[in-house]
């Protein structure tokens, strides 16, 4: 007879040579209690050591034939095969990990616990707690995505950055499905810095732009109307343009409508706002100009193409802007693009 779980031999009443059965039971206990295996193999090792255990892998051969999934224990110079049962767990030495038998095959133990702590104490809210200099989530041969899921739109899915367990910054879906960026000076009062709309991806600068600029012109932080447009634009440094030379700004794609704010380093050369179409049928339309009148072109400028004595501007198909200097001396410009 055998016990129900470990299948240990049981002494029978008036059994002859009871020591044999008793010793077999002890050997099995020795193999199974605090069990560890060397590795998983499909055939016996050439020189096994007494006390070594192995998981018998698929398609076993030799004396292990027919024992797939069982534990092969080498004791007293012979192999004994222990039939694996669902829930058995062993320490696998070669992979330094616990393996478990699920009733059909052996595999690494899966973590399935209500709480887990790694060098930290979890609780009912923080059911996974980790204390370490860093945490790594990496791919397994391809991509890797970290997902934070919430139950409904009015709930929150976010990442909070803290100082001594007091919140200072939060990013995520906080109360709706827009992407919010928030900050706090004390962990209690929060200010939304900006938001990206879920419906169309548009950016809202909720808190505006910071000083040293003023709060004039619609809260852009600029002190002039042209400065307001520049504050909301894309800045392109053109730099110094020598006389009879040209600077090129390539936006990398066709632009079917945008504004360009041209700012010089001196008041005696053109400055102002232009409308541009940098797509098929290019257009350049001055809106407000000062410091001189630029030459306007929708054909290429090479340095000496446009009107002499002026700064010339060309808008070309494919998102290209040319600024040509024929003013007689070097000038410098910064260009802001508003789309």
Structural class estimated from helices and strands: mainly beta
The pLDDT mean sits at 86
Gyration radius, in Å: 38 Å
User: Order of strands across the widest beta sheet?
Assistant: 11-12-13-14-15
Number of strands: 24
Major beta sheet, specifics? 5 strands, antiparallel
Distance between the termini: 85 Å
Number of helices: 3
Written as H for each helix and E for each strand, in order along the chain, the element string is HEEEEEEEEEEEEEEEHHEEEEEEEEE
Oligomeric state of the chains present here: single chain
What is the highest CATH level, the class of the largest domain? Answer: Mainly Beta
Short description:
With 339 residues, the protein is mainly β. It is built from three helices and 24 strands.
Model description:
About 3% of the residues have low confidence. The longest helix has 15 residues. The strands form six sheets. A five-stranded antiparallel beta sheet has the order 11-12-13-14-15, with no helix packed on it. It is elongated, with a radius of gyration of 38 Å. It has 339 residues and is mainly β. A hairpin with a 6-residue loop joins strand 14 and strand 15. The chain folds into three domains: 91 residues, no CATH class; 58 residues, no CATH class; 111 residues, Immunoglobulin-like (Sandwich). It contains three helices and 24 strands. Helices cover 8% and strands 39% of the residues.
């Amino acid at each position: 007879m055998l016990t129900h779980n470990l299948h240990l031999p049981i002494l029978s009443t008036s059994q002859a040579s009871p020591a044999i059965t008793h010793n077999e039971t002890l050997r099995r206990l020795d193999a199974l209690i605090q069990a560890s295996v060397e590795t998983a193999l499909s055939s016996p090792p050439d020189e096994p050591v007494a006390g070594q255990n192995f998981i018998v892998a698929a398609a076993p051969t030799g004396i292990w034939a027919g024992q797939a999934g069982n534990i092969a224990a080498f004791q007293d110079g012979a192999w004994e095969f222990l039939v694996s049962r669902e829930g058995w767990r062993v320490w696998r030495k070669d992979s330094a990990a616990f393996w478990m038998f699920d009733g059909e095959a052996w595999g690494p133990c899966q973590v399935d616990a209500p709480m887990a702590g790694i060098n930290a104490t979890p609780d009912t809210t923080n059911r996974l707690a980790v204390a370490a200099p860093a945490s790594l989530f990496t791919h397994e041969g391809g991509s890797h995505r970290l997902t934070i899921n919430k139950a409904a739109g009015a709930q929150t899915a976010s990442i909070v950055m803290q100082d001594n367990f007091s919140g200072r910054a939060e990013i995520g879906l906080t109360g709706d499905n827009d992407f919010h960026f928030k900050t706090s000076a004390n962990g209690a009062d929060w200010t939304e810095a900006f938001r990206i709309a879920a419906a169309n991806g548009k950016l809202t600068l909720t808190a505006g732009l910071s000083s040293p600029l003023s709060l004039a012109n619609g809260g852009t932080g600029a002190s002039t109307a042209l400065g307001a447009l520049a504050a909301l634009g894309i800045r392109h440094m053109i730099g110094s343009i020598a006389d009879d030379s040209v600077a090129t700004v390539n936006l990398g794609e066709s632009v079917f409508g945008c504004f360009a704010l041209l700012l010089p380093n001196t008041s005696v050369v053109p400055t102002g706002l232009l409308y541009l179409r940098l797509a098929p049928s290019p257009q350049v339309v001055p809106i407000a100009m000062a410091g001189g009148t630029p030459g306007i072109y929708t054909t290429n400028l090479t340095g000496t193409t446009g009107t002499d004595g002026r700064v010339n501007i060309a808008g070309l198909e494919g998102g290209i802007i040319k600024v040509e200097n024929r003013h007689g001396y070097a000038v410098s410009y910064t260009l802001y693009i508003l789309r």
